[in-house]
UniProtKB/TrEMBL annotation:
Coiled coil: none annotated. It comes from the Bacteria. Pfam families: Abhydrolase_1. The lineage of its organism: Bacteria, Pseudomonadati, Pseudomonadota, Alphaproteobacteria, Hyphomicrobiales. InterPro entries: AB_hydrolase_1, AB_hydrolase_fold, Haloalkane_dehalogenase. This is Pimeloyl-ACP methyl ester carboxylesterase. One of its GO terms (molecular function) is epoxide hydrolase activity. Keywords: Hydrolase. It comes from Phyllobacterium trifolii. Residues 29-271 form the AB hydrolase-1 domain.
């Protein structure tokens, strides 16, 4: 494989077509890149090439996301996605890797790490929340919806899934100059890939975030117990996960390397060079 080029691949995983992006030498140390919502492996398209001289980067589209299949019988829950990630890495023969944790990929990734701590060489954490006491103000409206009956909660979340909401998710709370640097491709592409079935799946996942709060102490215990080398790169202009959400990780990872950048939730769009430089430095010391 030629360094610097991102290759776009598919594999058959127990009858499900899975799309993924890969860059870097096959024998190089691996960085696994689970994506966030409402995105896909597309979020890592620019992050992968400048690191592919020394690392093998792999970014799958979860089932029901991006260019992967949307099978009817898949378990579209955090547990289901965790099981998918374990089967995907086993299919590729990955036996040790750095795990990138972002958005809902952080919840899935940490469940995977709890299940298979032997596979985790180090962590890169970027705007992924696991501390309930420091959640951002945007969570207040979501918590209000969670207080309703499951049926009404789902219906309200489902109704709110729209192209306009996708745009708001990607722009989040970044200041206007940074918002202008975030390409509309993010929400236009991912909205074009949404079907009614995928909208239903997304609504169930968002509703499931309420129960996921019960997992936060377990994620924290994993970090306390295993203390993997960790780089935290964070965009504090984030209505869901502000600066306090980043600093909270130091409670359980006091030796983690924390960098607050002038960005927001999707900082790879606005702070790419900084993120790549910090990654190279960190993995050069902990690879």
């Amino acid at each position: 494989m030629t360094n610097g080029l991102v290759h776009h691949k598919e594999l058959n995983l127990d009858g499900i077509k899975i799309f993924y992006r890969e860059a870097g030498p096959r024998e190089a140390p691996v960085i696994l890149l689970p994506h966030g919502y409402p995105c896909s492996s597309y979020e890592f398209r620019n992050y992968m090439p400048p690191l592919a001289d020394r690392w093998r980067l792999i970014a799958p589209d979860f089932p029901g996301c991006g260019y992967s299949d949307t099978p009817e019988d898949f378990d579209y829950t955090f547990d289901g996605y965790t099981d998918f990630l374990e089967r995907f890495t086993a299919k590729l023969g990955l036996n040790k890797f750095t795990l990138y944790l972002h958005d809902f990929g952080s919840q899935i990734g940490l469940r995977f790490a709890i299940s298979r701590p032997d596979l985790i060489a180090s962590l890169i954490i970027q705007n992924g929340d696991i501390y309930e006491d420091v959640l951002g103000k945007k969570y207040s409206s979501l918590k209000a919806i969670w207080e309703k009956t499951p049926e009404n909660s789902f219906a309200e979340i489902r109704q709110g899934i729209s192209q306009e909401e996708f745009q708001r998710e990607f722009l989040n709370d970044v200041r206007p100059e940074l918002a202008a640097a975030i390409p509309p491709d993010l929400w236009m592409l991912h909205w074009s890939l949404m079907t009614d079935r995928r909208k239903d799946i997304s609504a169930h996942i968002i509703a499931g975030l309420k129960d996921n709060l019960d997992w936060f102490p377990r994620y924290q215990s994993y970090l306390q117990d295993h203390r993997p080398p960790t780089l935290i790169i964070w965009g504090p202009q984030d209505g869901y996960m502000p600066e306090a959400s980043a600093r909270a990780y130091l409670r359980d990872l006091p030796d983690a390397e924390l960098h607050l950048l002038d960005g927001g939730h999707w900082l790879l769009e606005t702070n790419l060079d900084e993120a790549v430089s910090l990654t190279r430095s960190f993995l050069g010391r902990h690879g």
